[in-house]
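Example record

The entry below shows one chain as it appears in the dataset: sequence first, then structure tokens.
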Amino acid sequence: MNDPYRTLGIAPTASPEEIKKAYRKLAREHHPDLDHGAAKSEDRFKDISAAYDILSDPLTRGQYDRGEIDGLGAKKHPRSGGFGGFGGFGRGGAGPFGQRGRGGIRVNGADVEYALSVSFLESAKGGVKHISTTSGKRLKVTVPPGIADGTTLRLKGQGMAGFGGGFAGDALVDIHVLTDPLFRREETDILVDVPVTLPEAVLGAKVEVPTIDGPVSVTVPPGSNTGTILRLKGKGMPLGKKETSPDQRGDQYITLKVMLPREPDDELVKFVRKWSVDHPYDVFRKRPDNV
């Protein structure tokens, strides 16, 4: 007796995600193209595909669980419990996992998942990357500008090959954006911390600031402080929406960090000590939550 749960090696309580994961694993292991069309592998692949097509559809899964169909998708006779003909696989009729008739069974190929890491700049500006498939083929992956971490790109027809004339599955490419030492992303905006010297903060200055398009000159207003935020309009991420123009982008926000000299400076210490006597001022210090 064909038991689709046993065929996929899962429990009857398996979730849809567990069913899909088990199927993809077995389909890659037993696909005929990977075993030079061996008859044994071909039969095993048919069983795996049939089991998945029954269990992946809530309707046919329910019918199987209630005993209304068998492990091949054929309806059971309501009186004797035997087979009343192949309701799922009539001559030339459509079964749960393809067509069966004079031409034999047709099975669609499985989707295959891949992981692709890109740098922050590659995610911002887009580009072309390549991945190697399970069959050794290299696939071209076009990374669109502004792509976010965790996005899945679908390459149609680049998954496992179909069997008996079935459609090929898709390649699902999960994008992982690597952490950048300078830039951070917040939706379509880019955040960057920029250190400035004490004279630049107090007196104001022109400083060079990195952007994904290259360095630009930015004016630091006199009297700036650590935490002062400057905005560069249109220097953020591409919006990445079909209805927007390709040059429409978010903004870049610069947070200034006032830095003292790396080495102690005696003159600065003497000046601050003298200055602070006649110019005391308060600063807000956040109290701990438990105080």
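Notes for this example: The helical segments are 4-8, 16-30, 39-55, 58-65, 120-125, 198-203, 266-278. The first helix runs from residue 4 to 8.
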